[in-house]
Structures are given as structure tokens and as C-alpha cells.
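Before relying on records like the one below, remember that each one covers exactly one chain. Contacts with other chains, cofactors or solvent are not represented anywhere in the record.
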Amino acid sequence: MTVTEPAAATPHLLSVDGLCAGYGKVTAIDDINIHVDAGEGVGIVGHNGAGKSTLLSAIFGTQQIWRGNLVFDGKRANNAQCSENIGRGMAFLLADRYVFGSLTVLENLDIARSNAASGEIADRAMAKSRELFPRIWERRTQRADTLSGGERRMLGIAMVMMWEPRLLLLDEPSVGLAPALVERLFGTLSQLREAGLAMLCVEQNIPALLRLVDRVYIIRTGRLVGEEKASTLAKRREYWDLVLCGRFSTEGRPLHVVVGGPGKRSH
């Protein structure tokens, strides 16, 4: 009789275990446990000041990790330099300050291109950016600060894609954009996901986020309070408790819903 060994579990692309970080003596996030698999889309939602942006910064290496463990692509990455994480296949699109306004579109792309692992990767990424962002290429001789908000956001994505990342961190990509531009931007992000790019996205436009990701984590005052499938959350009629002050059970299901207007941009 032949005994078949159970298949080994595939390690997560990103694993965050018991992560704690903050500013000065103030703890911003505490005991955060999340993961992202290769090619998976994961969302993070929560109220203003919940610690969502701090979490992304700690993962990318721009915020010091006080305690816990961070593993990316099988290697421990606690307090790794941004350049190390970029080299391993991670990219981060900030909520703001993501392009050089005084430079042209093409000069911005050339700066990103110069940090690619090889000329072959840069050439491939440049060709892909022409396909995904034709509007940006039409404006390649314009200064970046003359572009619309949506165009600047797409330029930022085109820049980080020069590194051919396997995990893209996104901090509120829709902030400040008109609904039509949000639709176009998330359509482009969906194309990147279909091509196999994993994403970890902080976003307050919940309907747009749920069309992009597979799972969602909910953070309250620096702590993880829930996790749910995007398909389950999409069946709900209200989302305000996700970004305001609703409480969640440990299974990630709402105990009550607080209905109100959308909050300000989170940090």
C-alpha cells in the first residue's frame, strides 16, 4: 500500500505576525497578523487614524518595526531598507508625493527605469506602460504637475511597475479623484491583478475596493478586529461601520452598523 504524503502548504508571499510600530512613545499598530498570497488581492479598511498607512510603511521599510515578525518571499524583512524590498519584488504607491512635479512624464519614467533590476526588465515594463497608460504617453513631454490627479496616479503606478514587482502596496489610490477617474484607475489595477500581481490596498472607497480584492482586513485603533471575504462584504447594503466606528466580532461579521457620511482621509 502506497501512502501519499500530504502536499506541503505553499508559504505566503507576505506574512505579518504580531507586528507593532509607532511614533515616539505612541503605539500606532499592535499585534497585527495578516498575510498575502502570490497573486492575491487583499484590502485594509478602518477609521481615520486606525494605523493603516503605518502598517504599509512598516511593511515597506519606511517605518521602524518595534516588535513582531515580517517575512516577504520566504525571507525575514524586519526593518529592511526600501531598496532591499524593491529588489525582492515589493513596490509602494503612496497616497501623495509619488511623482516629481517639476519633471516631465518621460523623465519620471526614466528615473524609475534607472532603478530596474536590468535593462531587459525596464524595456519590458516600459512597453507594458504604453499599453496600460496610453493617455500618459500622449502627455510624455508635459511636466507631471500639469497632469490631472488621475493621470498623476497612473503615472505613479507606471513608475513602480518599472521594477516588475510581485507585491504592490497601495495607500488610498482613489483619494481626491472624480468617480469616473476612480473607475478607470481601478480598471487598470484589475488588469494588473489579472496578470498575477499581488496587492495590499488601503482604501475607503469600499465598493471599488471589493471589486479589486479577494479578502479584507478591518483595523480599529491599531488592532486587527476582523477579516472577511470581499464577496461576502459586497452583499451588504451599508459599509460605514468599516471606515467609522462600527464594532466587529472576531469572525469579522458586523455587530451593528453605523450609518453616516464618509470619513476624511485616513493616516
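DSSP finds ten helices and ten strands in the chain.
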